[in-house]
Structures are given as structure tokens and as C-alpha cells.
């Protein structure tokens, strides 16, 4: 069976849980240890899509690029974005400054790929009480902007909304 491949990028500040979200999605696994990502790492996963007729019966393979997001490497990161049809921009609900950087990360990605789609993940929801999460969701909702498909509260630890972010993106890539 042949497959059709689409590149997506995960991007955001250091330590927000990019590598952990990919690991939970691809391997259904979580670790409390910090797994330092040097530069970029690629993972692959086949995903089911509702509009399978559009793919001529082929499977969709996501090629997921895990990209270090510090400002120092911004120019390098932009090279990694080339050819990407979608991105997950990640912030950490326990570190407000990482949420304040999301808008800039969106701009950085769209500067390279103006026609691509973005899903925002407000990660580590398992560490915050539900009533605060509701406020965070209101303050950091990017969904009204062009190119932004949705904003999700996620947890790489519990798996909350992890499949949803990748499937929402995958459904728009074909
Ligand atoms: P990255 O630098 O964005 O790739 O971040 P990592 O995926 O390496 O995660 C940084 C740290 O946060 C690690 O210690 C992870 O175990 C932890 N972490 C990541 N996601 C979550 C989450 O959803 N909940 C909790 N409690 N910890 C998380
Ligand atoms: Mg990482």
C-alpha cells in the first residue's frame, strides 16, 4: 500500500513539552525526564483521515519535525520550516512567558509558510487546576486568526487532547 507524506513542525519555547507531545502521539509513552532535543529530530506516524477518497485509498504519513525554538536559533529554525504544510505551536500553562511567545512563533512560522495551517497547544494541563485553565483558554485563544485551526489545552502526560491536535492538523493537509 502506498502512502502520501506530509511534513509538520512542532515549535515553541524550550521545555514546553514538544518532544513529549510527539512521544505521546507516536509511542503512547511519557517520561518525566527531560529529553534534550539537539537541533531537530524527525518522527513518523501513519494517521487515518475521514476523507480517504481524496487520497485515492493511500495512507497519510505525518513526518513530524521536533524543532528547538530558542531565539538564538530562529534563523536556523526557519530553514527547518521549509516545505511544511502545518505546525503545532506549543506553550506551557505553568510558564506564562512561554504563552506570551506563542504569537511570535506563529508569525515566525507563517513568514516561511504563509499558506500553512497551525494548531496551538497549551500544554501541561495536568499541572493546573481546572478553574485556572478556563482563564488561560480565554486569554490565549488564537483561533480567530487566519491559518489557526484551533487552540487546545493538552497534556503530554495524561494524553489529554494529544491525538486531537495531530488529527485536526492532518485533516487539513490533504
Ligand atoms: P521540549 O523542550 O519542548 O521538547 O520539552 P520536553 O518534551 O522535553 O519536556 C520538558 C519537561 O516537561 C520534561 O521534564 C517533561 O517530562 C515535562 N512535560 C512535558 N509535557 C508535560 C505535560 O503535559 N505534563 C507534565 N506534568 N510534564 C510535562
Ligand atoms: Mg525537545
Descriptors for this entry?
six-stranded mixed sheet; Rossmann fold; globular; 174 residues; binds guanosine-5'-diphosphate; binds magnesium ion; alpha/beta
Short précis:
This protein has 174 residues and is α/β, with parallel strands linked by helices.
Instruction: State the total count of DSSP E strands.
Output: 6
Distance between the termini: 18 Å
> Fraction of residues in helices?
25-40%
CATH class: Alpha Beta
Order of strands in the sheet with most strands: 2-3-1-4-5-6
- The appropriate CATH architecture is 3-Layer(aba) Sandwich
Which radius of gyration do the C-alpha atoms yield? 15 Å
CATH topology: Rossmann fold
Name the bound molecules. Answer: guanosine-5'-diphosphate, magnesium ion
Q: With helices defined by DSSP (H or I, 4 residues minimum), what is the helix count?
A: 6
**What string, H for helix and E for strand, traces the elements in order?**
EHEEHEHHEHEH
Largest sheet: 6 strands, mixed
Number of domains: 1
- Principal-axes geometry comes out as globular
Strand content: 25-35%
Structural class by sheet pairing and helices:
alpha/beta
Mean of residue pLDDT values: 91
Poorly predicted runs of 5 or more residues: none
CATH superfamily: P-loop containing nucleotide triphosphate hydrolases
Amino acid at each position: 500500500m502506498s502512502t502520501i507524506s506530509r511534513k509538520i513542525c512542532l515549535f515553541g519555547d524550550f521545555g514546553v513539552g514538544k518532544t513529549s507531545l510527539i512521544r505521546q502521539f507516536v509511542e503512547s509513552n511519557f517520561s518525566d525526564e527531560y529529553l534534550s532535543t539537539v537541533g531537530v529530530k524527525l518522527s513518523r506516524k501513519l494517521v487515518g483521515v475521514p476523507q480517504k477518497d481524496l487520497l485515492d485509498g493511500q495512507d497519510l504519513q505525518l513526518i513530524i519535525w521536533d524543532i528547538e525554538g530558542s531565539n538564538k536559533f530562529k534563523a536556523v529554525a526557519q530553514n527547518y520550516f521549509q516545505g511544511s504544510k502545518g505546525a503545532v505551536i506549543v506553550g506551557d500553562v505553568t510558564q506564562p512567558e512561554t504563552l506570551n511567545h506563542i504569537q511570535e512563533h506563529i508569525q515566525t512560522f507563517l513568514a516561511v509558510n504563509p499558506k500553512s495551517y497551525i494548531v496551538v497547544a497549551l500544554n501541561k494541563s495536568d499541572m493546573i487546576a481546572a478553574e485556572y485553565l478556563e482563564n488561560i483558554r480565554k486569554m490565549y485563544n488564537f483561533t480567530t486568526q487566519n491559518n489557526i485551526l484551533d487552540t487546545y489545552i493538552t497534556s503530554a502526560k495524561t494524553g489529554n487532547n494529544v491525538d486531537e491536535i495531530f488529527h485536526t492538523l492532518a485533516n487539513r493537509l490533504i
